[in-house]
Amino acid sequence: MKTALITGVTGQDGSYLAELLLEKGYMVHGIKRRASSFNTQRIDHLYVDQHEQHVNFKLHYGDLTDSTNLIRIIQETQPDEIYNLGAMSHVKVSFDSPEYVGNVDGLGTLRILEAVRILGLEQKTRIYQASTSELYGGLAENKNEKGFYDENSPFYPRSPYGVAKIYGFWITKNYREAYNMYACNGILFNHESPRRGETFVTRKITMAAAAIALGKQDCLYLGNLNALRDWGHAKDYVEAMWRILQQDEPEDYVIATGVTASVRDFVRLAFAEIGVALVFDGEQENEVARVKSCSNPDYQLEIGKTVVKVDPTYYRPTEVDLLIGDPTKSKTKLGWEPKYNLQGLVKDMMESDLKSQMKSFTRPDIHVTAV
Ligand code: NDP
Ligand code: GDR
After folding, report:
1. Which residues does the UniProt record annotate as the domain NAD(P)-binding (predicted)?
2. Which ligand is nearest the CA of 266, by number?
3. Residue 329: which of 249, 262, 233 has the closest Cα?
C-alpha cells in the first residue's frame, strides 16, 4: 500500500486528489489548517471514524509556514508521494497580502523539500509541486510558434502570487538537480469544478446565473470580461498530477486543454446552459449583458433585463490577458487526455449550482472586500 501526503487537502484539488488516491488503494494523509469553524466540507464524505479498524484517510493539523510541524508530519507518515497543493491561491488577493503569499506559496515549497532532505527521504519520497500558468503572465511574444505556452516558454509573472509560485517552481527544479530528488512541477492551467472556491470567476458566474434565474439575485458584477483562460475540469487535472509522479524520470509538465475562452464567453455559456440567451452591449466599464430570450418560463426573467454589469473594483493592478496551454507533452508522455471540454465543465458546474440554489439562498455578490 502506497502512502501519500497532501497539503491543501481541504481545497478544490486536494479533495479530488484524495478521492482519486483512495480509489487507487493509497493510505492518504492530509494537512489542514486549524480554523475557528469547520472547513472540511469538500472532504467530509471521505472521512472515516478514526476508531475504525481500517483507517485509510487521516488528517493532521499543520501549516506551510511552520517547518517544525511539516518535519514532524513527514516523519510520522513516511510518504511515498507528497502533493504540495497548499497555497493562498487567489491572484487578486495576493496583491492585498503579498508577504504572506511569498511565505506560504514560495517558502512553503522550500520547507517541504527541506523536510524531506533533513529526514533523509530523498530517495523514497516523490514530490509534486502545484505550479501554475500564472508563471507565463500572458505575454503574447512568449508563446511558442504554434501560439501556445509550453514547457519551454519563458516566464513573466504578473502578480505577487505568480512571483511566489515562480520561486516554488525553481526551488523544486533546483532540488531535483542538486540532490537528485524526484521532484516535479505540474504547470497547470485554470481548472474548475462544482467545488471551486466561490470567489474565482467561473464559480462566481455559475452561482450567480443560478441565483438570478431563480429570482434570488438581481445582477452579477464582474471585472475584466476580456480576459482569456484555458479552462479545464479539476477532476481531469488531479489525474495528471498522479501520472506525473508515476514516470521513470522526474520532469515538469504543462497540463491544459489547448482551448481558450473569454470571461464573457463563460458568462454566455453558463446562462445558455439554463436556456437564457444574453446580448452584450457597451464597452469597458460600461459593458452590460441583457436577457435576449429565456426558454424556461419558471425563471420569469424579463426580456431586456440587465443581469451582468462591470465593476472596476474587480480589476487587477496587473492583469494576465491571455492563457492557452500546449498539452502535447502530457498527452504523449503521460498518456493524459481530459474527459471534459469547456461545455461539459460549464454543464457540470451549472447543474450543481442550480441544485444548491434551489435548496438555500446565498448572496455570492456580497463579500467583505471585492475579489
Ligand atoms: P484552493 O484555494 O481551493 O485550496 C488551497 C488549499 O491550500 C486549501 O486547502 C487551503 O486551506 C490550503 N492552504 C492555504 N494556506 C495554507 C497554509 N498557510 N498552510 C497550509 N495549507 C494552506 O486551491 P486549488 O485547489 O484550486 O489549487 C491547488 C493548488 O494548485 C494551489 O497551490 C494553487 O495555487 C495551484 N493551482 C491551481 C490552479 C487552479 O486553476 N485551480 C491552477 C494552477 C495551480 P484552507 O481550506 O484552510 O483555506
Ligand atoms: P485566475 O482565476 O486569476 O486565472 O487564477 P480567477 O478565476 O480569479 O480569474 C480569471 C480571470 O477572470 C477575471 N475576472 C474576475 N476574476 C474574479 N476572481 N472575480 C471577478 O469578478 C472577475 N471578473 C473578471 C480576472 O481578472 C482574471 O483575468 C486561477 C487561480 O486558481 C490560481 O491559483 C491559478 O494558479 C490560476 O488560476 C491558473
Report:
1. 5-349
2. 2
3. 249
